[in-house]
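Margin note: ligand = adenosine-5'-triphosphate.
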Amino acid sequence: MNRAKHLNVENVTLAYGEDDIVHNASLSLDKGEIGCLLGPSGCGKSTLLRAIAGFEPVKSGHISMRGQLLSNPQDRVPTEQRKIGMVFQDIALFPHLSISENIVFGIKKWSKSDQKRRVQELLTLIGLPDIADRYPHSLSGGQQQRVALARAMAPKPDLLLLDEPFSGLDANLRETLVPEIRDILRKEQMSAILVTHDQMEAFAMADKIAVMQNGRIQQCGTAFNIYHEPKTRFVADFIGLGEFLQASIKDEYSVDSVLGCLVGDEPLGYAPGTPVELLIRPDDIQHCEESPLTGRIVSKWFRGSHYLYHVQLDNGEVLPCITACHHDHDVGEDLGISIELDHLVVLPICDPETGLCDLQESEVVQTQAIAR
Ligand SMILES: Nc1ncnc2c1ncn2[C@@H]1O[C@H](COP(=O)(O)OP(=O)(O)OP(=O)(O)O)[C@@H](O)[C@H]1O
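Resulting structure:
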């Protein structure tokens, strides 16, 4: 049986005036799932979020929640009737209201006893049970953002929209707050969509990530999928670190490259001799003192628990390589490396002038790989 998704965004195109900003976007969430729109500035994340909230009309396609139509080109359920809560970057608590009055703001129609119970329930949930009578100015930024979340969650909305809620906070605070907020949402079984350009936030928070570029969802999947199985050059480039090695299809399952012949267990889908690019992540290349394969260190970053080196091979290609931080080598030294590829990620060569590859062809093939 094909059960309706909690949220369904189907083939949605959005425009400002004559300009299409979001093209044919599709995304769905189950109840309690946390989704994320991830992409660079200006790619259309907030515009799509605003359409889900009901602030923007859809030009084509439709948005529905719990089986009920919210938007199509003819009809739009007003924002205030959508049962959607919102949390923004600027925390915007009402400064003249106490914390409990702030939280009660969206549930004023509830009975006083229910309001009181809900406020205490939420304050306990956000780990600040004793602040009901305090005012926003007396709280830290992280505490204020947790209260803003509690205020948005108070009416038990069907969906929570979080538009860059962490970007005003410093890096240390973000690191602790993001998983805390994910846990709070999980405890309330709250479906949510986070908008961010920060992939670590997306990875820490979301069950499902939609990577956007120029108004298009390039790929939608788990953090693991989009990191290890990117479907386009853009996703491979935008998510995580990595380098592209020139390679050539050898046969159905293998490519030739400067690292030798790499073999996968899935057909690569290209004719022998086709030039392709092979994605290499830093964790695919390990330091190995005894390895006959070496690269000259051209850059070195200290990352606390490890070093990230870039090493240049004899043919000039540069590869990333992670080592434990006791392997402290200098730029200019030769580093022994071994290849630890779990799977092959092979992409067609992009046009060097336009940077474009045929989308049809840019479907990536990943295979379990062994070096031989
Ligand atoms: N009200 C508007 N009228 C016309 N164009 C707009 C409007 N709002 C946004 N845009 C344009 O639409 C495009 C997408 O903007 P949007 O804010 O959705 O991107 P974003 O991915 O959320 O970016 P950021 O991460 O910087 O907030 C941008 O080119 C932006 O200039």
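The first helix runs from residue 45 to 53.
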